[in-house]
Design brief:
The complex is a heterodimer.
Chain A lengths: L3 E4 L2 E4 L5 E7 L5 E7 L6 E7 L2 E5 L6 E5 L5 E5 L8 E8 L7 E3 L3 E5 L1
Parallel strand pairs in A: 2-11
Antiparallel strand pairs in A: 1-3, 3-8, 4-5, 4-9, 5-6, 7-8, 9-10, 9-11
Chain B lengths: L3 E3 L4 E4 L4 E7 L6 E7 L6 E6 L3 E5 L2 E6 L4 E6 L8 E8 L5 E2 L3 E6 L1
Parallel strand pairs in B: 2-11
Antiparallel strand pairs in B: 1-3, 3-8, 4-5, 4-9, 6-7, 7-8, 9-10, 9-11
The chains are: A mainly beta, B mainly beta.
Chain lengths: 113, 109
C-alpha cells in the first residue's frame, strides 16, 4: 500500500477528446510526477510538480499539462487525444526521506478509439 | 538514443540460481539510480537504490554502479519463482526520472 490513489482506473475516449486524470496522496507527498506506460514499455516521464509548480518535464508535447493543488493532489490533462495516447498513466509521490523513492499509484488505463 | 537501455529478455534462470540484470544510461548528470520490480498488471515497486560507485547489498539483492562506464546492474541471488517479474532500471538527473523498458525475468521451479 503506497498511499497514492488514482482515478479513474479505466476509461475510454475517442480521438480529439480531452481527458483529466486525478491523483491523491494520503501521505501528502509534496513532489508528484506523472508517467505514461505503453504496453511492454517502461514508464515514460511526463512531468514533475513541487509545491504547485512544474519543475521538470520530459519529451511530451504541450497538450499534456498538469496541476498540483495545495493539498498535494494532482491532475494530468491531455487535450486533442491521439490513438498513441492509449496507455497506463501512473502518478507517483516522491519520498520525503531523501532516498528518491517513488511511490506509485495503481494507474489509470486510458484507451483512445 | 534512449536515456536508459535494458535488454528486454526474457531472462530465464532456474530456482536457486543468480540472475544478473544490466542497464546503461546516457545522461552523465544522473545522480541517483534505482531498480524497480513490476509484476504483471501492477505498479512498479522499489527494490534498490544506489548513489555511489561500487556495490550495495540488501538481502538477496546487490546493485552495482559504474559511473565511468554509465552502467548499473542488479544481481539476485538464490532466485525464487516469486522473483519472476519485469525489472525496471531508472536513473534520475535533477528533477527528472528516466526508466528503461524493463527486463522480464522468469525463474523456473
Amino acid at each position: 500500500e503506497t498511499g497514492v490513489t488514482q482515478s479513474p482506473t479505466h476509461l475510454i475516449k475517442t480521438r480529439g477528446q480531452q481527458v483529466t486524470l486525478r491523483c491523491s496522496s494520503q501521505s501528502g507527498h509534496n513532489t508528484v510526477s506523472w508517467y505514461q506506460q505503453a504496453l511492454g514499455q517502461g514508464p515514460q516521464f511526463i512531468f514533475q510538480y513541487y509545491r504547485e509548480e512544474e519543475n521538470g518535464r520530459g519529451n511530451f508535447p504541450p497538450r499534456f499539462s498538469g496541476l498540483q493543488f495545495p493539498n498535494y493532489s494532482s491532475e494530468l490533462n491531455v487535450n486533442a487525444l491521439e490513438l498513441d495516447d492509449s496507455a497506463l498513466y501512473l502518478c507517483a509521490g516522491l519520498s520525503a526521506g531523501g532516498t528518491g523513492e517513488l511511490f506509485f499509484g495503481e494507474g489509470s488505463r486510458l484507451t483512445v478509439l | 538514443q534512449k536515456e536508459v537501455e535494458q535488454n528486454s529478455g526474457p531472462l530465464s534462470v532456474p530456482e536457486g540460481a543468480i540472475a544478473s540484470l544490466n542497464c546503461t544510461y546516457s545522461d552523465r548528470g544522473s545522480q541517483s539510480f534505482f531498480w524497480y520490480r513490476q509484476y504483471s498488471g501492477k505498479s512498479p515497486e522499489l527494490i534498490m537504490f544506489i548513489y555511489s560507485n561500487g556495490d550495495k547489498e540488501d538481502g538477496r539483492f546487490t546493485a552495482q554502479l559504474n559511473k565511468a562506464s554509465q552502467y548499473v546492474s542488479l544481481l539476485i541471488r538464490d532466485s525464487q519463482p516469486s522473483d519472476s517479474a519485469t525489472y525496471l532500471c531508472a536513473v534520475s538527473p535533477f528533477n527528472k526520472f528516466y526508466f528503461g523498458s524493463g527486463t522480464k525475468l522468469n525463474v523456473k521451479p
